[in-house]
């Protein structure tokens, strides 16, 4: 399971090969997601019932929101020219108008002041400072609840990517943003997703563009694990 430590350097490189997002990283995430998907989904469902909402996961294929983003006040961190620490990254997420109310409400310390987030830094967008990738996790199991990417622009950190359909995890791999997410068909049980998507994005102009995608079908022997270019 993903640890709660901070990764510096921003390469995210964990395996060899021509296409990002394959190898041991995907295997580790697949095992963790399959075991814990039902726990996270039930927790979010219970939270939604209490507020009259539908929860973070709707039935159907998973998706990520990729957009130019909305500005986050630079007061949310110590300085837009300095790398935020974990506590400042939490403040950044909580001050972000793009982040859902549900995620903000659940983003509380697990023990003492230990927040359930993973933070990594690296050059994804070619900006003046390192971009920030923040994964919000569940306290009990460390499963990815939401993923965000922040880019420094004009003295403020701007949200340029979000995915709030668990289980999800984003990381930096050789300049790519690699997002791993399980996919539920309409009639899938919470503990039995149909497949897993690993999608690699590249920054182009002012947004992330899909470059590679790999789908592993849990219903077929071995699955389809060959990366397919998206453009």
Helix-strand blueprint:
Layout: E1 6-7, H1 24-51, E2 65-66, E3 71-72, H2 86-94, H3 101-106, E4 117-122, E5 131-137, E6 144-153, E7 156-163, E8 168-173, E9 176-183, E10 195-204, E11 207-217, E12 228-229
Parallel strand pairs: 1-4
Antiparallel strand pairs: 2-7, 3-7, 4-5, 5-6, 6-7, 8-9, 9-10, 10-11, 11-12
Organism: Streptomyces coerulescens
Region (Disordered): 1-26
Biased composition (Gly residues): 1-12
Short account of what is shown:
With 231 residues, the chain is an alpha+beta fold. It has helices at 24-51, 86-94, 101-106, and strands at residues 6-7, 65-66, 71-72, 117-122, 131-137, 144-153, 156-163, 168-173, 176-183, 195-204, 207-217, 228-229. It is 19% helix and 32% strand.
Mean pLDDT across every amino acid position:
72
Number of helices: 3
- The run of helices and strands is EHEEHHEEEEEEEEE
Total beta strands: 12
Based on Cα principal axes, name the global outline.
globular
Distance between the termini: 32 Å
Measured as a percent range, the helix fraction is 10-25%
Question: Which spans of ≥5 residues are poorly predicted at pLDDT below 50?
Answer: 1-17, 23-63, 74-79
User: How much of the sequence is in beta strands?
Assistant: 25-35%
| Cα Rg | 17 Å
Query: Mind summarizing the main beta sheet?
Result: 7 strands, mixed
Find the structural class using helix and strand composition: alpha+beta
Biased composition (Gly residues): 1-12
Region (Disordered): 1-26
Protein name: Lipoprotein CseA
């Amino acid at each position: 399971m993903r640890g709660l430590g901070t990764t510096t350097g921003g390469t995210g490189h964990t395996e060899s090969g021509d296409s990002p997002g394959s190898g041991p990283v995907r295997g580790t995430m697949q095992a963790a997601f399959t075991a814990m998907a039902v726990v996270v989904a039930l927790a979010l469902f219970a939270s939604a019932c209490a507020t009259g909402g539908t929860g973070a996961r709707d039935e159907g294929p998973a998706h990520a929101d990729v957009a130019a983003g909305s500005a986050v006040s630079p007061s949310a961190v110590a300085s837009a020219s300095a790398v935020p620490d974990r506590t400042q990254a939490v403040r950044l997420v909580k001050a972000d108008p793009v982040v859902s109310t549900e995620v903000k409400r659940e983003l509380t310390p697990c023990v003492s002041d230990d927040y359930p987030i993973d933070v990594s830094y690296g050059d994804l967008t070619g900006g003046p400072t390192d971009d920030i990738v923040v994964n919000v996790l569940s306290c009990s199991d460390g499963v990815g609840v939401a993923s965000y990417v922040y880019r420094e622009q004009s003295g403020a950190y701007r949200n340029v990517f979000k995915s709030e359909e668990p289980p999800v995890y984003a990381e930096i791999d050789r300049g790519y943003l690699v997002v791993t997410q399980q996919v539920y068909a309409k009639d899938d049980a919470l503990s039995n997703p149909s497949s897993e998507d690993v999608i690699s994005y590249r920054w182009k102009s002012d947004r992330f563009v899909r470059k590679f995608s790999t789908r592993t079908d849990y219903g077929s022997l071995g699955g389809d694990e060959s990366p397919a270019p998206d453009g």
